[in-house]
């Protein structure tokens, strides 16, 4: 985000990392928030912590390993989409693994996921989005109570599902964010897809994820 020349506020919400994340963040961010509790913070709680400190009209949630090329052009397009459609409450974009790290299965699976996000959001009107990139109007975020902190996993899809009940969510296929794909590379695609499926079904049926915790992978 430091490559974006427009008005911005960079907030890093740290869940209590033991590496150099905080040290690096303090050099780049406007605000660094550090979780102080003894109980492990959920991803949802960390994102709500950061959102509560934000002053802007839009909230942009990014995972730590995300890269956005040509940030000025990217966010110019994103803001244009919101300004052109008052019904738009949440925006997500295409996902790709960094080309130098991308495997054959990364290409196949993320191509499928991108099509799925297009269909869910733009065709069926059922919000769906991963946590790598989500841009949300702040007033709409507050209206639905932010991320569900009771969810250990799946809070990203749950957020867009709830947003789609009060407005329009949209997948913009001309915009792309890049990430490391580290979780799939560490545990393998079969296991990760199984975890995603279990959590999604459990949240839909029971209102909670099947996963007991979301293991950190760095």
Automatic annotation (TrEMBL):
Q: Supply the name of the protein.
A: Glycosyltransferase 2-like domain-containing protein
PANTHER family in UniProt: GLYCOSYLTRANSFERASE, POLY-BETA-1,6-N-ACETYL-D-GLUCOSAMINE SYNTHASE
Domain spans labelled Glycosyltransferase 2-like = 7-144
Name the domain of life this protein comes from.
Bacteria
**Gene source species:** Candidatus Harrisonbacteria bacterium RIFCSPHIGHO2_02_FULL_42_16
Q: Which InterPro entries match?
A: Glyco_trans_2-like, Nucleotide-diphossugar_trans
């Amino acid at each position: 985000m430091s490559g974006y020349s427009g008005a911005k506020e960079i907030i890093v919400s740290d869940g209590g990392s033991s590496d150099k994340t905080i040290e690096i963040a303090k050099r780049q961010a406007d605000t660094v928030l550090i979780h102080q509790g003894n109980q492990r913070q959920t991803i949802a709680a960390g994102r709500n912590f950061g959102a509560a400190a934000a002053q802007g009209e839009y909230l942009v949630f990014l995972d730590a390993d995300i890269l956005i090329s040509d940030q000025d052009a990217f966010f110019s397009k994103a803001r244009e989409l919101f300004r052109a459609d008052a019904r738009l409450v949440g925006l997500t974009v295409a996902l790709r693994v960094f080309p130098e790290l991308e495997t054959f299965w990364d290409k196949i699976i993320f191509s499928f996921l991108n099509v799925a996000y297009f269909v869910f959001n733009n065709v069926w009107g059922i919000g769906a989005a991963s946590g790598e990139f989500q841009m949300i109007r702040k007033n709409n975020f507050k209206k639905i109570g932010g991320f569900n902190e009771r969810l250990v996993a799946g809070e990203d899809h749950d957020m867009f599902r709830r947003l789609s009940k009060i407005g329009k969510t949209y997948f913009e296929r001309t915009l792309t964010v890049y990430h490391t794909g580290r979780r799939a590379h560490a545990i393998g695609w079969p296991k990760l897809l199984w975890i995603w499926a279990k959590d999604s079904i459990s949240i839909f049926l029971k209102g909670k994820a099947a996963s007991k915790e979301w293991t950190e992978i760095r």
